[in-house]
Amino acid sequence: MPTLRFDNTFVRDLPADPETRPGVRQVHGALFSHVQPTPVRAPRLIAWSKEVLSMLGMDEALTQDPMFASVFAGNEIFPGMQPYAANYGGHQFGNWAGQLGDGRAINLGELINPAGERWELQLKGAGRTPYSRTADGRAVLRSSVREFLCSEAMHQLGVPTTRALSLVTTGDLVIRDMFYDGNPEPEPGAIVCRVAPSFIRFGNFELPASRDDLPLLEKLIDYTIRRDFPALGDPDKVADKHEQRALWFTDVCERTARMVAHWMRVGFVHGVMNTDNMSILGLTIDYGPYGWVDNYDLDWTPNTTDAQGRRYRFGYQPRIAYWNLSRLATALATVMPATEPLEAALQRFIDVFTEDERRHTAAKLGLRECRDEDMAHVEALRGLLQEAEVDMTIFHRALADVNIDAPSVEPLSEAFYDDAKRERFEPKFVEWLETFAARVREDEPDRSARRTAMLAVNPKYVLRNYLAQQAIDRATEGDYTGVTELLDVMRRPYDEQPGREAYAEKRPDWARQRAGCSMLSCSS
Ligand code: AMP
Ligand code: MG
Description:
Layout: E1 5-6, H1 9-13, E2 32-34, E3 44-48, H2 50-55, H3 66-71, E4 84-86, E5 89-92, E6 95-99, E7 105-112, E8 118-124, H4 141-157, E9 163-176, E10 185-196, H5 202-210, H6 214-228, H7 241-266, E11 268-269, E12 291-292, H8 317-333, H9 340-365, H10 375-387, H11 392-399, H12 419-442, H13 447-455, H14 465-476, H15 481-489
Antiparallel strand pairs: 1-7, 2-4, 3-9, 5-6, 7-8, 8-10, 9-10, 11-12
Helix pairs in contact: 4-14, 5-6, 5-8, 7-8, 7-9, 8-9, 10-12, 14-15
């Protein structure tokens, strides 16, 4: 292994849990606990992201060294690493859940790459920690494949996200009751190494605030600003700390707005937007029962655990993000003299989201901009897509091929799931397209430049739920080539990839009601 440089500020600058013995406990007055990953039986490297390797300054040859699999399975600690589990709380499904913490994620350290950037490495599924509550600290192969692939797919789509360096199988079995129906089964275990500048979540701030431990909360705020928001200046040197905090929270609101606007643009549904799953950097984090919208449906949620209330359905994500930011604001208000700046920042979320949403919508439709008077037309399209059961991704991609001088529905026909609905709604689509084409012509676009620009924002390839499930089915049989192939396809989501059209097909009928394809539980 080469020399890797670590600079572990989190464990160096923040208060640690003085208790170092294992065992589940409430941890007060500390932001993390030192822990060691629990070794696994037979680590085997299944897949890695060459982009993340190079981002970290690691040579691809390194993946062939057995030590690589060993380190990223938690069996060995590389010099300079100081593993720890973070202490945080969170609101789960709308309710305060108290202390949660990294129950199976173990941070290895903050790697400084050759460019001087800081990247935190984190193993998910590396064994028990003081925050594991009643669970085993492990992760199963199916959920690890999903997290690994989606992290990288999202990045390539241009969506802010944590990254994934590696996917390792452990050689151990993990017992899971996938549908919480009293049928636990052994499944292969796996570990993903996640990578991000920071894994701090809203819940890291909420926990000390809920315990009225304001000095601890202030330490964490100052630390976060210093390390992850350097543009705001050094908290120890600014004239007005409170003003700096307000600017910081505004930045968090803006980043969150941009992230969710991207989710809506590509049809991503997170599935578990609890405040412990919201990154302070506005990165998509914690890929659990997420899903990709096939037929455009604002009411859809992939998460069976949320099937009743559907709190985290596709169309609700912006308002849930706002609700989550409000919980963070409530925590921060405990160390602010006034709440007005926090309220103004929340308003900023609405403004930035609205602005971004419109900009993305205009780009997807090939318009120069969405004017106020265009919005009724946009809404009409959304209604049609939903009612007529139309594939979101295929529709937008194909829209680039509609001739705006002689519009017809022909290029869009592949996007329909139901022939009867297609026939029924065709006249409405024709009518919509005619008004739309007239509107596009007002822009006087260069036809070919417009088409190219549309293809650059409307992906051809997204990580459809059934595609991930097919790769998982093969991986469970010991064939990992499906994972690497899918990873490779998702590297260039906006490009035509001749020979790989099958990966751009709409959800097949068999996948409509199949576990893993349309229904996912939190069991992972
Ligand atoms: P999630 O819904 O995955 O965000 O997890 C919520 C909380 O449960 C976090 O504190 C996790 O660390 C913890 N957790 C989830 N799965 C496990 C597991 N298998 N072992 C220990 N803790 C877990
Ligand atoms: Mg989580």
